[in-house]
Amino acid sequence: MEWKNPRPTSSPAETLTLGEELAALFHHKLYVVTLQGDLGAGKTMLTKGIAKGLEVPDWYYLNSPTFTLINEYRGRLPLYHFDLYRLGDTDELFELGFNDYLAGPGVLVIEWPEAARELLPASNLIDIRIEIVAGDRRLFHIKRIIG
Q1: What pLDDT tens digit does each residue of the chain (147 aa) get?
Q2: 81: CB partners within 8 A, 6+ apart
Q3: Residue 61 in domain
Q4: Distances from the Cα of 59 to the Cα of 1, 52, 74, 108, 121, angstroms
Q5: Checking DSSP bridges between strand 70-73 and strand 79-83, what pairing results, if any?
Q6: Residue 45 lies in a domain
Q7: What is the pLDDT of residue 8?
Q8: Looking at the domain assignment, is residue 1 inside a domain?
Q9: Are 115 and 106 in contact (CB under 8 A)?
Q10: Residue 107 DSSP one-character state
């Protein structure tokens, strides 16, 4: 699949579709997707699209794990949705067993990834920065897709 960079969307439905397209690239490996953007930029909506593309059952109500730090979902690959906004320090990641999640296979989606940056693998890493243009219009800047 060829990605236009930045990738524009003009509605939540298009953001959902973008997440589904991204998930179609994921096979039996570990993938880490980092999401950066202001509150309300569409990080959770993109994650919902990834979940849909990973065949996570519809009965899961996927929302941002702001207060729990991580939500886990089962699909054709496990999906681990991290929100590190409230993380105090890197030691808390170790308490969560973060290294176990990096053992793969699966997909880690990490909102507010700064605290985990030095722990992330160098392969199958996708950095996405979401820019709010106006209203529901967004630009998804895909920084890199490796290995």
Answers
A1: 445 678 999 999 999 999 999 999 999 999 999 999 998 899 999 999 999 999 998 766 676 666 667 889 999 999 999 988 888 777 888 888 888 999 889 999 999 998 888 888 888 899 999 999 999 999 999 887 665
A2: 47, 51, 62, 64, 65, 70, 71, 72, 73, 109, 111
A3: yes
A4: 29, 11, 11, 20, 31
A5: antiparallel
A6: yes
A7: 92
A8: no
A9: no
A10: E
* In contact, 118 and 91? CB cutoff 8 Å: no
Q: What is the pLDDT of residue 1?
A: 44
Question: Alpha helices, DSSP H only, in the chain?
Answer: 12-23, 43-53, 90-95, 98-101
Domain assignment present for residue 2? The answer is no
Q: Give me the pLDDT at residue 121, please.
A: 87
* Measured CA angle at 7 (ends 82, 50), to 5 deg: 35
pTM for the whole structure? 0.89
Alpha carbons 77 and 67: distance in angstroms, whole number: 24
Q: In the numeric block, which tokens belong to residue 4?
A: 């236009």
CATH number for the domain harbouring residue 11: 3.40.50.300
Count how many domains the chain has.
1
The pair of three-digit structure tokens given for residue 51, joined into one six-digit string: 């979940």
Question: In terms of residue numbers, what domain contains 81?
Answer: 7-145
